[in-house]
């Protein structure tokens, strides 16, 4: 859990010095962050993550020697408890999928602000996942469009409903989903009830089970 009494150590991995310096300057004022390390390529990122008491890595994708995907795999293989927050200009659904499968805990656009970055760090340090809203929409749309042989019920689900199912499966509350998607908790609850009605299910647990069985997660 990220708080002032238990500050964490951050590693910033990016091959652009302006980015690493800028992020370090931005985060050094946060009382919940203790030590800040930097790396200008994936290989150095892996070395520093494994050699130091790093809790979270802010990871770029396009880097020399080792890219962010390979660096993430190596770090997670040796220290799976280290959280990986990807911050990249690349937001293609296939790339996001690859990073998440490699073990990334969050994925943000590089034009994100400090508030959203800190929100993502807090989420992952609380053992939750975080994907910025615009990337989430693109990702879920991509997965929905490439879903083979969807059932009639799946065809009835909207992209927003599938998005909400996945957030429910991640353990988010109605309030957290509402904040993430910039909608009201009433709207989230309405979507949940509509899905249960469409799919002829009785409760949230059966909704998550359905989503898993139909490869919606």
Task: Describe the overall structure.
The protein has eleven helices and six strands. The protein is α/β, with parallel strands linked by helices. It has two domains: 8-132, Rossmann fold; 147-213, Arc Repressor Mutant, subunit A (Orthogonal Bundle). Helix 4 (93-102) packs across helix 6 (133-145). The longest helix is centred in the C-terminal third of the chain and has 15 residues, at 185-199. The model has no long low-confidence stretch (mean pLDDT 86).
Structure described in brief:
The protein has 217 residues and is α/β, with parallel strands linked by helices. 53% of the residues lie in helices and 13% in strands.
Number of domains: 2
> Gap between N and C termini, in Å?
25 Å
Number of helices: 11
Please write the string of helix (H) and strand (E) elements.
EHEHEHEHEHEHHHHHH
Any idea what the CATH architecture of the largest domain is?
3-Layer(aba) Sandwich
> What would you call the structural class?
alpha/beta
Q: Helical amount among residues, as a percent range?
A: 40-55%
